[in-house]
Design goal:
eight-stranded parallel sheet; 10 helices; 8 strands
Amino acid sequence: MVAPSSTAASTAPAALHPVLQTLLSRPYPAIMGVLNVTPDSFSDGGRFLAPDRALAQARRMVAEGADVIDVGAESTRPYGAQPIPAEQEIERLQPVLADLVFLGVPISIDSMKAAVAGFALQSGVAVVNDVWGLQRDDGMAELVAARNAAVIVMHNREHVDPELDIMSDVAAFFCRSLDIAAKAGIPPGHIVLDPGVGFGKTQEQSMTVLARLDELGVFGRPLLVGASRKRFISSVVPCEPMERLGGSIAAHLIAAQRGARIIRTHDVAETAQALRVANAIEDKR
Protein backbone atom coordinates (compact mmCIF):
# COMPACT_ATOMS: atom_id res chain seq x y z
CA MET A 1 0.00 0.00 0.00
CA VAL A 2 1.36 3.42 -0.97
CA ALA A 3 1.79 5.80 1.97
CA PRO A 4 2.82 9.37 1.09
CA SER A 5 4.40 11.71 3.60
CA SER A 6 2.10 14.08 5.42
CA THR A 7 3.34 16.99 3.32
CA ALA A 8 2.75 15.14 0.05
CA ALA A 9 -0.75 13.94 0.83
CA SER A 10 -3.57 16.26 -0.15
CA THR A 11 -5.84 17.26 2.75
CA ALA A 12 -8.34 19.22 0.65
CA PRO A 13 -9.15 19.52 -3.05
CA ALA A 14 -6.77 21.98 -4.69
CA ALA A 15 -7.91 24.59 -7.20
CA LEU A 16 -7.02 23.15 -10.58
CA HIS A 17 -4.96 24.92 -13.21
CA PRO A 18 -7.40 26.23 -15.87
CA VAL A 19 -6.06 23.84 -18.49
CA LEU A 20 -6.42 20.88 -16.13
CA GLN A 21 -9.88 22.06 -15.14
CA THR A 22 -10.94 21.73 -18.78
CA LEU A 23 -9.16 18.43 -19.39
CA LEU A 24 -10.67 16.80 -16.31
CA SER A 25 -14.23 18.06 -16.76
CA ARG A 26 -15.62 14.89 -18.38
CA PRO A 27 -16.55 11.54 -16.84
CA TYR A 28 -13.94 9.72 -18.95
CA PRO A 29 -10.21 10.45 -19.30
CA ALA A 30 -8.81 13.18 -21.50
CA ILE A 31 -6.65 12.14 -24.43
CA MET A 32 -3.09 13.39 -24.83
CA GLY A 33 -1.79 12.81 -28.36
CA VAL A 34 1.91 12.06 -28.77
CA LEU A 35 3.86 14.12 -31.32
CA ASN A 36 7.55 13.26 -31.67
CA VAL A 37 9.60 15.68 -33.77
CA THR A 38 12.60 13.38 -33.42
CA PRO A 39 14.52 11.01 -35.67
CA ASP A 40 14.82 8.25 -33.05
CA SER A 41 11.67 7.82 -30.95
CA PHE A 42 10.97 4.16 -30.27
CA SER A 43 7.80 3.68 -32.36
CA ASP A 44 7.62 6.55 -34.86
CA GLY A 45 11.11 8.04 -35.00
CA GLY A 46 11.57 10.28 -38.05
CA ARG A 47 7.97 10.15 -39.30
CA PHE A 48 7.12 13.64 -38.07
CA LEU A 49 10.52 15.32 -37.99
CA ALA A 50 9.61 17.47 -41.01
CA PRO A 51 7.54 20.48 -39.81
CA ASP A 52 4.76 20.01 -42.38
CA ARG A 53 4.32 16.36 -41.39
CA ALA A 54 4.38 17.23 -37.70
CA LEU A 55 1.68 19.86 -38.11
CA ALA A 56 -0.45 17.54 -40.26
CA GLN A 57 -0.18 14.79 -37.63
CA ALA A 58 -1.15 17.21 -34.86
CA ARG A 59 -4.20 18.34 -36.83
CA ARG A 60 -5.13 14.71 -37.45
CA MET A 61 -4.93 13.89 -33.76
CA VAL A 62 -7.07 16.89 -32.81
CA ALA A 63 -9.67 15.83 -35.39
CA GLU A 64 -9.59 12.30 -33.94
CA GLY A 65 -10.30 13.52 -30.42
CA ALA A 66 -7.04 14.63 -28.81
CA ASP A 67 -7.67 17.08 -25.97
CA VAL A 68 -4.02 18.06 -25.63
CA ILE A 69 -0.92 17.51 -27.80
CA ASP A 70 2.36 16.51 -26.15
CA VAL A 71 5.27 17.51 -28.37
CA GLY A 72 8.81 16.30 -27.77
CA ALA A 73 12.03 17.04 -29.63
CA GLU A 74 14.31 14.62 -27.81
CA SER A 75 13.71 10.90 -27.61
CA THR A 76 13.18 9.85 -23.99
CA ARG A 77 12.52 6.21 -24.84
CA PRO A 78 13.58 3.97 -21.96
CA TYR A 79 16.13 1.96 -23.96
CA GLY A 80 19.04 3.50 -25.84
CA ALA A 81 17.91 7.12 -26.20
CA GLN A 82 20.72 9.49 -27.13
CA PRO A 83 20.67 12.78 -25.18
CA ILE A 84 20.92 16.01 -27.16
CA PRO A 85 21.65 19.59 -26.05
CA ALA A 86 18.85 22.04 -25.34
CA GLU A 87 19.81 24.07 -28.40
CA GLN A 88 19.09 21.12 -30.67
CA GLU A 89 15.72 20.48 -29.07
CA ILE A 90 14.78 24.13 -29.54
CA GLU A 91 15.97 24.02 -33.16
CA ARG A 92 13.59 21.11 -33.84
CA LEU A 93 10.70 22.85 -32.08
CA GLN A 94 11.03 26.29 -33.65
CA PRO A 95 9.48 25.45 -37.06
CA VAL A 96 6.34 23.85 -35.55
CA LEU A 97 5.60 25.27 -32.11
CA ALA A 98 4.00 28.54 -33.16
CA ASP A 99 1.55 26.73 -35.45
CA LEU A 100 0.77 24.05 -32.86
CA VAL A 101 -0.40 26.54 -30.25
CA PHE A 102 -3.07 27.80 -32.66
CA LEU A 103 -4.70 24.38 -33.17
CA GLY A 104 -7.34 25.05 -30.54
CA VAL A 105 -6.17 22.57 -27.89
CA PRO A 106 -3.52 22.99 -25.17
CA ILE A 107 0.05 22.04 -26.04
CA SER A 108 2.38 20.23 -23.66
CA ILE A 109 6.17 20.23 -23.98
CA ASP A 110 7.85 16.89 -23.31
CA SER A 111 11.27 17.90 -22.03
CA MET A 112 13.40 17.47 -18.93
CA LYS A 113 15.35 20.69 -19.63
CA ALA A 114 14.30 24.03 -18.18
CA ALA A 115 15.77 25.94 -21.14
CA VAL A 116 13.59 23.99 -23.59
CA ALA A 117 10.51 24.25 -21.39
CA GLY A 118 11.10 27.98 -21.03
CA PHE A 119 11.26 28.44 -24.80
CA ALA A 120 8.09 26.42 -25.23
CA LEU A 121 6.17 28.30 -22.53
CA GLN A 122 7.25 31.58 -24.08
CA SER A 123 5.81 30.30 -27.35
CA GLY A 124 2.40 29.62 -25.82
CA VAL A 125 2.68 26.08 -24.47
CA ALA A 126 0.60 25.53 -21.31
CA VAL A 127 1.89 22.28 -19.80
CA VAL A 128 5.37 20.98 -18.99
CA ASN A 129 5.77 17.18 -19.14
CA ASP A 130 8.96 16.37 -17.22
CA VAL A 131 9.96 12.71 -17.46
CA TRP A 132 12.25 13.21 -14.47
CA GLY A 133 9.62 14.75 -12.23
CA LEU A 134 11.42 18.06 -11.47
CA GLN A 135 14.44 16.10 -10.22
CA ARG A 136 16.84 16.34 -13.17
CA ASP A 137 17.11 20.09 -13.95
CA ASP A 138 17.32 22.28 -10.86
CA GLY A 139 15.72 25.18 -12.72
CA MET A 140 12.60 23.35 -13.85
CA ALA A 141 10.42 23.77 -10.76
CA GLU A 142 11.19 27.46 -10.44
CA LEU A 143 10.40 27.96 -14.12
CA VAL A 144 7.05 26.15 -13.87
CA ALA A 145 6.10 28.22 -10.83
CA ALA A 146 7.16 31.53 -12.38
CA ARG A 147 5.23 30.84 -15.61
CA ASN A 148 2.15 29.55 -13.78
CA ALA A 149 2.22 26.41 -15.94
CA ALA A 150 0.69 23.03 -15.30
CA VAL A 151 3.25 20.25 -14.87
CA ILE A 152 3.29 16.48 -15.29
CA VAL A 153 5.60 14.81 -12.78
CA MET A 154 6.71 11.40 -14.05
CA HIS A 155 8.43 8.68 -12.06
CA ASN A 156 11.75 7.53 -13.48
CA ARG A 157 14.85 5.59 -12.50
CA GLU A 158 18.38 5.46 -13.85
CA HIS A 159 18.53 1.68 -13.58
CA VAL A 160 16.08 -1.20 -13.45
CA ASP A 161 16.01 -3.18 -10.19
CA PRO A 162 13.90 -6.35 -10.43
CA GLU A 163 13.98 -6.77 -6.63
CA LEU A 164 12.53 -3.31 -5.97
CA ASP A 165 9.14 -2.69 -4.39
CA ILE A 166 8.13 -0.52 -7.32
CA MET A 167 5.06 1.04 -5.71
CA SER A 168 7.08 2.16 -2.70
CA ASP A 169 9.71 3.59 -5.04
CA VAL A 170 7.10 5.49 -7.06
CA ALA A 171 5.59 6.89 -3.86
CA ALA A 172 8.97 7.99 -2.50
CA PHE A 173 9.83 9.62 -5.82
CA PHE A 174 6.53 11.50 -5.90
CA CYS A 175 7.07 12.69 -2.33
CA ARG A 176 10.43 14.16 -3.34
CA SER A 177 8.96 15.78 -6.45
CA LEU A 178 6.01 17.25 -4.57
CA ASP A 179 8.37 18.64 -1.94
CA ILE A 180 10.44 20.29 -4.70
CA ALA A 181 7.26 21.67 -6.24
CA ALA A 182 6.00 23.07 -2.94
CA LYS A 183 9.32 24.76 -2.16
CA ALA A 184 9.31 26.34 -5.63
CA GLY A 185 5.77 27.62 -5.17
CA ILE A 186 3.95 25.39 -7.67
CA PRO A 187 0.31 25.14 -6.53
CA PRO A 188 -0.85 21.56 -5.84
CA GLY A 189 -3.67 21.97 -8.35
CA HIS A 190 -1.16 22.53 -11.14
CA ILE A 191 0.41 19.06 -10.76
CA VAL A 192 -0.38 15.78 -12.53
CA LEU A 193 1.36 12.54 -11.53
CA ASP A 194 2.52 9.89 -14.01
CA PRO A 195 3.88 6.53 -12.74
CA GLY A 196 6.15 6.26 -15.78
CA VAL A 197 5.12 2.96 -17.36
CA GLY A 198 8.20 1.50 -19.04
CA PHE A 199 10.72 3.91 -17.48
CA GLY A 200 13.27 2.37 -15.11
CA LYS A 201 11.06 -0.67 -14.62
CA THR A 202 10.97 -4.31 -15.57
CA GLN A 203 8.04 -5.41 -17.71
CA GLU A 204 6.45 -6.93 -14.61
CA GLN A 205 6.90 -3.69 -12.66
CA SER A 206 5.25 -1.72 -15.45
CA MET A 207 2.24 -4.00 -15.22
CA THR A 208 2.27 -3.71 -11.44
CA VAL A 209 1.99 0.08 -11.48
CA LEU A 210 -0.98 -0.25 -13.85
CA ALA A 211 -2.66 -2.92 -11.73
CA ARG A 212 -2.16 -0.90 -8.54
CA LEU A 213 -2.59 2.57 -10.01
CA ASP A 214 -5.49 3.36 -7.69
CA GLU A 215 -3.09 3.31 -4.73
CA LEU A 216 -1.55 6.53 -6.04
CA GLY A 217 -4.85 8.28 -5.44
CA VAL A 218 -3.63 8.98 -1.90
CA PHE A 219 -1.61 11.88 -3.33
CA GLY A 220 -4.77 13.70 -4.32
CA ARG A 221 -3.46 14.67 -7.75
CA PRO A 222 -4.80 13.72 -11.18
CA LEU A 223 -3.07 10.67 -12.66
CA LEU A 224 -1.78 10.36 -16.22
CA VAL A 225 -0.85 7.05 -17.82
CA GLY A 226 1.10 6.55 -21.02
CA ALA A 227 1.26 2.83 -21.83
CA SER A 228 1.02 3.34 -25.58
CA ARG A 229 3.07 0.78 -27.55
CA LYS A 230 5.28 0.08 -24.51
CA ARG A 231 7.54 -2.95 -24.39
CA PHE A 232 5.71 -4.71 -21.56
CA ILE A 233 2.95 -5.49 -24.07
CA SER A 234 5.40 -7.58 -26.07
CA SER A 235 6.35 -9.50 -22.92
CA VAL A 236 2.79 -10.84 -22.88
CA VAL A 237 2.22 -11.18 -26.64
CA PRO A 238 5.40 -10.84 -28.73
CA CYS A 239 4.99 -7.99 -31.19
CA GLU A 240 6.67 -4.92 -32.62
CA PRO A 241 5.80 -1.38 -31.42
CA MET A 242 3.42 -0.69 -34.32
CA GLU A 243 1.59 -3.97 -33.56
CA ARG A 244 0.70 -3.10 -29.95
CA LEU A 245 -2.60 -1.26 -30.41
CA GLY A 246 -4.68 -3.93 -28.71
CA GLY A 247 -2.36 -4.16 -25.74
CA SER A 248 -2.16 -0.38 -25.46
CA ILE A 249 -5.95 -0.06 -25.35
CA ALA A 250 -6.23 -2.88 -22.80
CA ALA A 251 -3.69 -1.14 -20.55
CA HIS A 252 -5.38 2.22 -20.92
CA LEU A 253 -8.84 0.83 -20.12
CA ILE A 254 -7.42 -0.75 -16.97
CA ALA A 255 -5.73 2.57 -16.12
CA ALA A 256 -9.01 4.43 -16.56
CA GLN A 257 -10.76 1.94 -14.27
CA ARG A 258 -8.00 2.49 -11.69
CA GLY A 259 -8.34 6.28 -11.72
CA ALA A 260 -6.27 7.68 -14.61
CA ARG A 261 -7.72 11.00 -15.74
CA ILE A 262 -5.41 11.58 -18.72
CA ILE A 263 -4.27 8.94 -21.22
CA ARG A 264 -1.20 9.62 -23.35
CA THR A 265 -1.32 7.75 -26.66
CA HIS A 266 -0.01 7.55 -30.21
CA ASP A 267 -3.33 6.09 -31.42
CA VAL A 268 -5.84 8.81 -30.64
CA ALA A 269 -8.95 7.72 -32.56
CA GLU A 270 -8.91 4.13 -31.34
CA THR A 271 -8.13 5.08 -27.74
CA ALA A 272 -10.79 7.80 -27.64
CA GLN A 273 -13.38 5.38 -28.98
CA ALA A 274 -12.45 2.70 -26.45
CA LEU A 275 -12.62 5.10 -23.49
CA ARG A 276 -15.94 6.60 -24.53
CA VAL A 277 -17.57 3.23 -25.20
CA ALA A 278 -16.31 1.87 -21.87
CA ASN A 279 -17.74 4.91 -20.11
CA ALA A 280 -21.08 4.52 -21.91
CA ILE A 281 -21.27 0.87 -20.85
CA GLU A 282 -20.43 1.71 -17.24
CA ASP A 283 -23.22 4.31 -17.26
CA LYS A 284 -25.74 1.49 -17.78
CA ARG A 285 -24.90 -0.30 -14.51
